[in-house]
Amino acid sequence: MNIKSIEKNGNQATIVVEIDKELMEQGVNKAYLKARKNIMIPGFRKGKAPRKMIEAMYGAHVFYEDGLEEIFPEVYKAAVVDQDVKAVGRPSLTDMDISEEGVVTITLTTDVYPEVTLGDYKGIEVEKAEAEVTDAQVDAELNRMAQNVASTETVERPAEMGDTANIDFEGFDNGVAFDGGKGENHDLKLGSNSFVPGFEEQVVGMSAGEEKDIDITFPEDYHEGLAGKAVVFHVKCNKVTVTNVPALDDEFAKDVSEFETLEELKADIRAKALENAQKQINNSFENAAVEKAAENTTVEMPNALIEAELDNQMERFAYQLQMSGYSVEQYAKMMGGDLSTMRNAFRPTAEKQAKINVTLEKIAEVEQIVVADEDVEAEYASLAEQYSLELDKVKGMVPAEEIKANLKTRKAVKVIVDNAVAVAPKAEEKTEE
After folding, report:
1. 332: how many CB neighbours lie within 10 A of its CB?
2. Mean pLDDT lowest among 107-111, 275-279, 428-432
3. Is the predicted pLDDT of residue 430 greater than 60, yes or no?
4. Partners of 88 in the beta sheet?
């Protein structure tokens, strides 16, 4: 195999390769042997036609493209890997010339890894807030815990605000039932404002077994067909229940936690909330620092890198949807689009992440970041523990090179974050009304 020329132009490389007759013949013969089982030639049983007969009928070079595919790993190694061409994605065949002597000359075009020029990635100023937890947040968590252990009981009295009325209802527009206006055994928390304005207030005072008509006028901004209309709902109250929320005292603390007093429980809630708040702040600080470092980087991104990142993001999103019982196609249709629409929606994020990726790789190169074998082993052990899997199984699932690449990226992120300068967030400007 002879590499005749390599020309680089921006993020693309064009490679002209001369493939000797013997190697090409190997590929062509492999292609013939694979294809002949599906070829019928008059006078021969299916799959038994000689190669020369097929070539005589369909052309002397009928198997050459498939033959090239058969030897492509060898071609790729000689033309790309051995020439230190940092190809992104699979090269495209743009030309093939076959001489009378059987020597094949091909032209390959490929996107190549871009030239990356780092800007400032150390000493970047990033806003970072102070973690804080308010009394209101602690009280909200206490109330949530109280609601979780609250009990309900049916009462034999007229419904009051704060009660839950189980109702059947049907709406009528000029005596005709309208779509979406009917429900049975619906639990309505009075005062929740979950129904049309004025509805819940008229359920107040109803007792179990009572029926009544409720006059309602839909808001002007309600959905088309009912906006601004005066309608009548026929309502039947099936039962009235009250929620008994325990008092927030020491006994409550003992019931819902390992603590003896309410003050101890509050302190624990505050500490955990503060820890979570700090984690969120740290994550935001890290993301902002990395994004700024990428913004400072100068690079002409090849489309192949962006498309690869776009594929990754679409794949991750598809997995998340699958966990919820949906496919990407179903989701796209629900959102009024198709897969192409979704890819376009993801593209700006993919472009941003692809630039972050090349920035981190360049930082790892400049900082001479090395990932030791023991680091890889420690990461394997961590993953095995995290997912409760045997170590050998994790190693079989995740290639060591992938682990190394991830660890190298994390170390590059650490370089940025450790050298970033935290500054207080700017005060929000008040706008005059």
Report:
1. 19
2. 428-432
3. no
4. 111
Give the Cα separation of 85 and 16 in Å (integer). Answer: 13
**DSSP string computed for 376-388:** HHHHHHHHHHHTT
Closest CA to 165 of 215, 204, 194: 204
Q: What does the block give as tokens for 226?
A: 């009912």
For residues 195 and 188, the answer to whether their CB atoms sit within 8 Å is yes
- The CA distance from 355 to 417, in Å, is 17
Calpha distance 28→72 (Å, rounded)? 12
Convert the pLDDT of each residue in 220-277 to its tens digit.
888 777 889 999 999 999 999 999 999 999 999 999 999 999 999 999 999 999 999 9
Cα 161 to Cα 200: distance, rounded to the nearest angstrom: 8
In the predicted model, is pLDDT for residue 432 greater than 60? Answer: no
What count of Cα atoms within 13 Å lies in the side-chain half-sphere of residue 344? 6
Residue of 420, 393, 379, 143 whose CA lies nearest to 265: 143
Residues with Cβ within 8 Å of residue 388, at least 6 apart in sequence: none
Pairing, β 116-117 against β 298-299: antiparallel
Model pLDDT for residues 360-371, shown as the tens digit of each residue = 999 999 999 999
Which position has the higher pLDDT, 430 or 56?
Answer: 56
Q: Which CATH superfamily is domain 262-423 in?
A: Trigger factor, C-terminal domain (1.10.3120.10)
The tens digit of pLDDT for each residue in 173-198 reads 999 999 889 999 999 999 999 999 99
Distances (CA, A) of 356 to 264, 279, 306, 406: 44, 22, 11, 13
**What span, in angstroms and rounded, lies between the C-alpha atoms of 357 and 122?**
17
Question: Which of 3.40.640.10, 3.30.70.1050, 3.40.50.2300, 3.10.490.10 would CATH assign to domain 2-113?
Answer: 3.30.70.1050
Joined together, the tokens standing for residue 32 give 């013939």
Read out DSSP for 140-174?
HHHHHHHHHT-EEEEESS---TTSEEEEEEEEEET
